[in-house]
């Protein structure tokens, strides 16, 4: 098969239509707006490449001006998709690109027409692609291999179109947009088909990776408080616990809200949820880097600390109880809504997280039995045992 301009355009139509359909199906399942913009961009290229074939039948307005305008529109949609993907807000000045393109209608039909049209068309496409690449620059390594690939594909694509724009104005270069004549046009069609395939693969890979990361993050978090759930705590706890020693003791605090059911009964579950969220925010505000916090379920929370001390535990427990008491004062109940805390200080890695929680649960029971609104701290010298 000869890679002449009509064949390359048909190949481009097939690739773009396939990418548009695939991204639209992906958007239908996950509703990520970046996918919708990218799908629309590939659909626009499909239409533009189909119209480009009409110039060979003499339909120059549709085949040249309208088709090339759709190419600019497609890359503008790609830029919008990247902006949504990176959560970046674009300036409204980018809409002026369509004003610039519309001004090309005023160009006189002289021998330089193809050169000027190619210069502006390629320049606008190059600027849009480079801007999209720059938006990905601070995010590439933190997102995925696909995002890095997308960044460099857009970078190369943008630089190629800027080079094309410059070469179009070099004296002696022959260009005829009406019949696809000229080496620049031939090379551009090949580059367009290859870039289209690479951009499609990079975009789908980037969004799929981020979606998988988001699903994993959601699976590890309590949906209400955004703290870790018990399963996530069990996965992360071993790394923290392996550093526990006599010189760097560890601690586990088990926190329970006293009379929490009264808030739900008197003020509704929405009020109870607000109180749970407030407590989780207090815990996060007091948390250091060498600590983990999780919601075990209901109104029970846990804090796992490394390099702890009895003074640090007492200060943390007192701060949480005082702040929570002020927050809970907004809900008048027959019995005070307070915090009971059972804490366990240890200087040797425990056999399991479950055993550690069980010991703190015993301390919590002692705290509640002693009148609630208090903290019971148990220090265990496991090394001596």
Plain-language structure description:
The chain is of the alpha+beta class and about 375 residues long. The protein has two domains: about 5-220; about 230-380, Alpha-Beta Plaits (2-Layer Sandwich), CATH 3.30.70. It has helices at about 5-30, 35-50, 60-85, 95-100, 115-135, 140-145, 145-170, 185-220, 230-240, 260-265, 270-285, 310-330, 355-370; strands spanning about 250-255, 290-295, 300-305, 340-345, 375-380. A five-stranded mixed β-sheet has the order 2-3-1-4-5, sandwiched between helices. Strand 4, helix 13 (about 355-370) and strand 5 form a beta-alpha-beta unit. Helix 5 packs antiparallel against helix 7 (about 145-170). The longest helix has about 40 residues, at about 185-220. The mean pLDDT is about 85.
Cα distance spanning the termini: 81 Å
How many structural domains in the coordinates? 2
Strand content: 5-15%
Determine Rg (CA atoms, Å).
Answer: 31 Å
Broad structural category? alpha+beta
Task: Note the total helix count.
Answer: 13
Q: Classify the helix fraction into a percent range.
A: 55-70%
Strands ordered across the widest β-sheet: 2-3-1-4-5
Low-confidence stretches are none
Distinctive features:
385 residues, Alpha-Beta Plaits, 5-stranded mixed sheet, 13 helices
């Amino acid at each position: 098969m000869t890679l002449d301009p009509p064949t390359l355009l048909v190949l481009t139509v097939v690739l773009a239509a396939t990418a548009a359909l695939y991204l639209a199906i992906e958007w239908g399942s996950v509703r990520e707006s970046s996918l919708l913009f990218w799908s629309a961009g590939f659909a626009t290229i499909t239409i533009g490449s189909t119209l480009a074939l009409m110039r060979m039948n003499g339909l120059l307005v549709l085949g040249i001006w309208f088709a090339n305008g759709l190419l600019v529109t497609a890359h503008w949609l790609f830029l919008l998709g990247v902006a949504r993907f990176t959560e970046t807000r674009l300036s409204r000045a980018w809409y002026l690109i369509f004003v610039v393109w519309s001004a090309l209608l005023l160009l006189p039909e002289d021998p330089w027409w193809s050169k000027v049209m190619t210069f502006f068309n390629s320049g606008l496409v190059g600027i849009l692609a480079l801007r999209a690449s720059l938006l990905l620059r601070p995010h590439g390594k933190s997102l995925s291999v696909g995002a890095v690939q997308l960044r460099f594909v857009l970078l190369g694509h943008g630089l190629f179109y800027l080079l094309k724009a410059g070469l179009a104005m070099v004296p002696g270069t022959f260009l005829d947009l009406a019949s696809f004549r000229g080496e620049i046009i031939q090379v551009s069609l090949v580059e367009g088909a290859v870039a289209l395939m690479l951009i499609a693969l990079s975009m789908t890979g980037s969004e799929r990776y981020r979606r998988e990361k988001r699903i994993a993050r959601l699976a590890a978090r309590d949906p209400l408080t955004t703290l870790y759930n018990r399963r996530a705590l069990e996965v992360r706890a071993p790394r923290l616990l392996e550093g526990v020693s006599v010189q760097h003791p560890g601690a586990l605090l088990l926190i329970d809200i006293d009379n929490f059911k009264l808030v739900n009964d008197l003020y509704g579950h929405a009020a109870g949820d607000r109180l749970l969220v407030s407590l989780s925010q207090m815990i996060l505000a007091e948390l250091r880097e060498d600590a983990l916090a999780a919601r075990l379920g209901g109104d029970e929370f846990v804090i796992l600390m490394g390099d702890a001390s009895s003074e640090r535990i007492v200060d943390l427990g007192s701060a949480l109880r005082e702040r929570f008491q002020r927050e809970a004062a907004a809900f008048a109940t027959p019995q005070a809504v307070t915090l009971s805390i059972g804490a366990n200080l240890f200087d040797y890695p425990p056999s399991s997280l479950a055993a550690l929680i069980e010991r703190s649960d015993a301390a919590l029971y002692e705290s509640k039995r002693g009148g609630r609104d208090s903290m019971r701290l148990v220090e265990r010298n496991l090394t001596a045992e």
